[in-house]
Amino acid sequence: MHDARALIEMGAEAVRRLARRGYSLDLSRLEDLQSRRNQSIRSADEMRAEAKRVASEVQQTAKQGGDISKLKERARALKDQIRDIDTEHEQVQEELTDLLLTIPNLPDDAAPDGDSEEFAVEVRRVGTPPTFSFEPKDHVDLGEGTGILDFARATKLSGPRFAVSRGAGAALERALATLFLDIHTRRHGYVEHAVPYLVTRKTMTGTGQLPKFEEDLFKTGVADRELFLIPTAEVPLTNLYADEIIPPADLPLALTAHTPCFRSEAGSYGRDTRGLIRQHQFAKVEIVQMADPADADATLETMVGHAEACLKELGLAYRVVKLAAGDTGFSAQLTYDIEVWIPSQNTYREISSISNFGTFQARRANIRTRGEDGKPKLVATLNGSGLPIGRTVAALLEQCQQRDGSLVLPESLFPYLGFRRISADGITEA
Predict the structure, then answer these.
(1) Relative to the CA of 385, which of 29, 78, 211, 373 has its CA 20 to 30 Å away?
(2) For this structure, is 391 an active site residue?
(3) What's the pTM?
């Protein structure tokens, strides 16, 4: 969320930057609401000061035996006026807050122009996409052929966009999650967390999922208690420090968790309805950091390297791109996507997004540290996928496939699996 005063002070610059992501800032409305809010505060303060003066005058007049009837009438009138002004202030403050909650973050000028993935700028490619002397199968055919994925039974249980993994497939998912957590905790210094998968509306608002993306969220509740299923571990991990002041010596904080993620993907039907690319439920290892805002740019680059390390460990070909301003997520200033090679589609597809949110989420969630002067200031928050399990499985099956439909998995997974090969009929072999 933004500081209204900062947006107003930026004026045309704020309008320009938000226009790069396709958002039209109504600066006049923002100025009007902020002015009315400030005026209501001033008026209430003046009325309270007057009420205090009148109350003191009532006491003094009463002690002297004077007539206090008119003074008491004035006191009652002031009380009514203060109540009316407070009501007006609450209404204006609510309208201002509602507006601010819908204004996306200002994109970094380092983000290229454009409003779709077509305008992303490639930063680097790592690894060589595999070539095959046969027509490569997609991961659905490979998974169902070996018996390690079952989409039909998943649909029977829950409808479309769910998957069941079995045997070596389930073991592969577990192995990947453990490998990624080991990489991040042992090499990169992240602290692993086990977090709730159900969170409150306030928690979802803190990281920017609400109010804008409510239609994309799965919601549940008991009696009058409302809870949301997390779309990513970013939500609970970041909000762990909501309404707290983090000691400067503790920064940067590096947190990770392996959780299920739940997304309705509203508005995206027709895209990737087949397979593991876009599921309603999927598992992911998330990495989150909180840093001093001055260090956020460098931290972002570091975190991209942390996600890349997982792909390098698996020997998967991928590329890194910088997203265009208009294709950057609501809360992000700058985002890098890592795209893994998918042979059946003959293209790179997103497997991880790593974003710098600046102080945008920290303002919403009230996460602060202290500056050199000892005064509280907002932290910068950053997060990324490190990595999603389903999309990694899809890339592994497709890049590691053999002519006979068998799969030869990376050596790095052997300590976690105890096998390297899955035959065409689903039998595992060392």
Answers:
(1) 211
(2) yes
(3) 0.93
Answer positive or negative: Cα dihedral of 144, 147, 149, 155: positive
Q: Choose the catalytic residue: 263, 363, 364, 368.
A: 263
For residues 387 and 169, give the distance between their C-alpha atoms in angstroms, rounded to a whole number: 17
Please state the φ and ψ torsions of residue 385, each to the nearest 5 degrees.
-85, 130
Model confidence pLDDT, tens digit, residues 115-148 = 999 999 999 999 999 999 999 999 999 999 999 9
Q: How far apart are CA 345 and CA 324, in angstroms?
A: 23
Q: Which amino acid is at 143?
A: G
Is residue 350 part of the annotated active site? The answer reads yes
Site of tokens 């998967």: 316
∠ CA 37-93-82 to the nearest 5 degrees?
Answer: 65
pLDDT in tens, 57-83: 999 999 998 999 999 999 999 999 999
How far is 303 from 336, CA to CA, in rounded Å? Answer: 10
145: which residues sit within 8 A by CB, 6+ positions away? 137, 405, 424
Q: Write out the DSSP string of 24-61.
A: ---HHHHHHHHHHHHHHHHHHHHHHHHHHHHHHHHHHH
User: Has 353 been annotated as catalytic?
Assistant: yes
